[in-house]
Design a protein that fits this description.
Helix content is 81%, strand content 0%. The chain is mainly α. The chain is globular. The mean pLDDT is 84.
């Protein structure tokens, strides 16, 4: 479970960096910069260390990246713009686990035990208590944001289930599944062209740099983009893949559902927005759920 906790931590920091990067670049350019950094950084490391990228089941990871890091992250960035990072992250992380549970059951016939499901439910309840009610806003704007967050959750769930599919293919061929870095880079390879194509299409009228904030912050703005790419689709996805290689996707996603709590703490340190008592209560409930899950 340690890699799932690390993924939760890095995903939360990535959301914080994404919010700051979007402030400087706009959602589309921030998303493209994020996955480009991961593509170059993780790709160079994987190639220089001689990790294999072709093995039984590798197309599943490529497809999972196209759906999760491609479609899912596009929906995620645009959802955050409409309903805020906190609520968007809550919807994505809490719905991803049950989505993955259903998909994994339908595709592989795997399902967690009743005790594990109850423990996962406690985690999700804790996260929900911590984040509280969403703020009010324009109804259609709000509904689109909710729909995009649900789409992002479905994309994340599909991306997660691609790992046990790849693992099953390797086991059938009696070949070891490569480590999380190789798996993560394959997912980046699947997601990068989706993000690039969407961003170029979506910015065709006004140009790629139309949403860049003026005056441009230079190194500070690119610093947030660099940290966003390395912590999210880079190190975070690698830890995520390592966790998915040893545990069911529904359980891993339940642990990763703690990331909204970490994100609120990062928001406190970075932006000075101190979480209220509800956050600490929800955090206590979620941690209790994690303890139950580890012992289930």
């Amino acid at each position: 479970m340690e890699f799932a906790f690390l993924a939760s931590f890095f995903f939360a920091w990535s959301i914080t960096c994404a919010r700051r990067s979007s402030h400087h670049h706009g959602a589309d350019l921030a998303n493209l910069g994020r996955i480009s950094v991961a593509f170059v950084g993780i790709g160079a490391f994987v190639l220089l260390t001689g990790r294999t990228l072709v093995f039984p089941g590798w197309p599943w990871l490529l497809l999972g990246g196209a759906i999760g890091l491609g479609v899912g992250d596009i929906a995620s960035f645009h959802s955050m713009m409409r309903i805020g990072a906190g609520l968007a992250l809550l919807i994505m992380q809490t719905l991803a686990a049950p989505f993955a549970l259903v998909i994994e059951y339908l595709v592989l016939g795997h399902a967690p035990s009743v005790a594990q499901m109850l423990a996962a439910g406690v985690i999700l309840v804790g996260v929900g208590v911590a984040l509280g009610r969403p703020p009010e806003g324009d109804r259609r704007h709000w509904q689109l944001g909710i729909a995009l967050a649900v789409l992002a959750a479905l994309g994340q769930a599909c991306g997660a289930v691609s790992t046990p599919m790849a693992k099953a293919a390797c086991e059938t061929a009696h070949v070891a599944l490569p480590d999380g870095l190789a798996q993560g880079f394959l997912r980046i390879l699947g997601g990068f062209p989706i993000v690039l194509g969407f961003v170029l299409w979506n910015t065709r009228a006004n140009g790629l740099f139309a949403q860049v904030r003026r005056p441009y912050a230079g190194l500070k703005a690119w610093g947030w983009t660099l940290m966003n790419g390395l912590s999210g689709p880079g190190i975070g996805v690698a830890c995520y893949q390592w966790a998915l290689s040893t545990r069911s996707s529904a359980l891993v996603l339940s642990i990763v559902a703690l990331s909204p709590l970490f994100a609120l703490l990062f928001q406190w340190f970075v932006e000075g927005k101190r979480p209220g008592a509800r956050v600490w209560l929800g955090g206590a409930i979620a941690i209790a759920g994690v303890i139950l899950l580890r012992n289930a």
